[in-house]
């Protein structure tokens, strides 16, 4: 009636990877099949994974033919090596264009790079109970994890006119917080000729553990697995997950002191999922999963338009922009962008049992 299990694992917990490229072109028209000239290129290159290496231990006790009590504990070590770089590079066409007016004119390139090392640990507790042939309940508690973050920050912008080069190179040391999570779920096994299971989870993520400006978020996960001919499972699911977008800006308080102002935007991401399993051989099983998600939110430009105002760097009128009636300036929250995202996730796994 008593069982126990142990295990070890190594997996990525969070991904910081991403690439973004944006071409900046002027406002020349497209007469005679021409194309507006490219004056600058923006890039964001992020690399790094927060990896998790853990040990798990579980105990189970059979209280009856269909009644089981399970308790588990998970302890893991977390570490990451992350690099985030943001650059603005003027094209040779733009450089030659302004130098043709005055050889002393300079267009400043920009580079900003942050490198961090993360290290720490996390603990997770869980329990599940099979109440009877039809119902089961479970709960997990993931404790708040405070990771040590050691970082180096580098920023450089070339000099122009009477403005000196902007150069910053510094070391940073602070904490990186993963919020605690509480998740409760239940399973329903209906009386059915074919094996069918309904699952639903409700999760609370305590984002207030990270900063007081965040509210705690609640996420929903529901799914059903139905076996065809007692051996081919079909899975369908839906989830609604909340996350936050944090923006900061500098301001002053009532006494005129400089302060940092925080603005948070909650983003909900619905996702529809589907999947199945294929028996490859006697002890080998291939699992396949598919997800489609969408979301919409408001945000500021990743690169402010004011940087491409060549009048700032020459002290004269526009040289790179044929239409001189434009007003190049950074947009604020009075006129943000509306972002619509759609993305697809694919998962595949092979398991061997003996």
What's the gist of this structure?
The chain is mostly beta strands. The chain has helices spanning about 90-100, 310-315; strands at about 1-15, 20-25, 40-45, 50-60, 70-90, 110-130, 135-140, 145-155, 165-180, 180-190, 195-205, 215-230, 230-250, 260-280, 285-300, 335-350.
Order of helices and strands: EEEEEHEEEEEEEEEEHE
Instruction: Give the end-to-end Cα distance, rounded to a whole number of Å.
Output: 21 Å
**Percent helix range:** under 10%
Q: pLDDT below 50 for ≥5 consecutive residues: which ranges? A: none
**How large a portion of the residues is in β-strands, by DSSP E?**
over 45%
**What is the mean predicted local confidence, pLDDT?**
92
Q: How many DSSP helices?
A: 2
The tally of beta strands, per DSSP, is 16
Report the C-alpha radius of gyration, rounded: 27 Å
Shape descriptor reads elongated
**Class by SSE composition:** mainly beta
Please give the largest β-sheet: 16 strands, antiparallel
3D architecture notes:
The protein is mainly β. It is built from two helices and 16 strands. The longest helix has 10 residues, at 92-101. The radius of gyration is 27 Å and the shape is elongated. The two termini are 21 Å apart. The model has no long low-confidence stretch (mean pLDDT 92).
List keywords for this structure.
354 residues; mainly beta; 16-stranded antiparallel sheet; 4% helix; elongated
């Amino acid at each position: 009636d008593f069982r126990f299990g142990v295990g070890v694992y190594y997996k990525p917990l969070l991904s910081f990877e991403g690439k973004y490229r944006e071409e900046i072109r002027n406002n020349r028209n497209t007469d005679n099949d021409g194309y507006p000239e490219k004056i600058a290129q923006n890039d964001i290159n992020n690399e790094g994974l927060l990896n998790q290496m853990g040990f798990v231990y579980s105990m189970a006790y059979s209280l009856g033919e269909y009644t089981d009590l399970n308790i588990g504990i998970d302890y893991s070590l977390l570490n990451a090596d992350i690099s985030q770089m943001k650059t603005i590079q003027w094209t040779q066409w733009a450089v030659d264009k302004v130098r043709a007016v005055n050889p002393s004119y300079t267009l400043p390139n920009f580079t900003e790079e942050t490198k961090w090392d993360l290290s720490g640990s996390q603990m997770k507790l869980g329990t599940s109970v099979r109440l009877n042939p039809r119902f089961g309940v479970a709960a997990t508690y993931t404790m708040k994890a405070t990771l040590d973050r050691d970082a180096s920050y580098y920023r450089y912008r070339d000099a122009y006119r009477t403005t000196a080069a902007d150069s910053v190179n510094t070391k940073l040391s602070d904490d990186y917080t993963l919020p605690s999570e509480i998740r409760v779920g239940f399973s329903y096994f209906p009386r059915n000729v074919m094996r069918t299971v309904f699952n639903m989870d409700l999760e609370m993520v305590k984002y207030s553990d990270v900063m007081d400006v965040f509210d705690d978020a609640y996420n929903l996960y529901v799914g059903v697995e139905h076996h065809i001919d007692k051996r081919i499972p079909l899975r369908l699911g839906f989830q609604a997950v909340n996350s936050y977008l944090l923006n900061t800006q500098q301001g002053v308080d009532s006494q005129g002191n400089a302060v940092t102002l925080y603005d948070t935007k909650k983003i909900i991401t619905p996702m529809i999922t589907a999947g199945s399993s294929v028996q490859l051989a006697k002890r080998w099983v291939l699992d396949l999963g598919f997800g489609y998600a969408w979301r919409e939110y408001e945000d500021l430009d990743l690169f402010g338009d004011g940087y491409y105002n060549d009048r700032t760097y020459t002290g004269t009128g526009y040289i790179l922009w044929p239409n001189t009636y434009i007003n190049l300036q950074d947009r604020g929250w009075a006129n943000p962008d509306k972002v619509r995202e759609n993305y697809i996730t694919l998962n595949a796994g092979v398991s061997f049992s003996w």
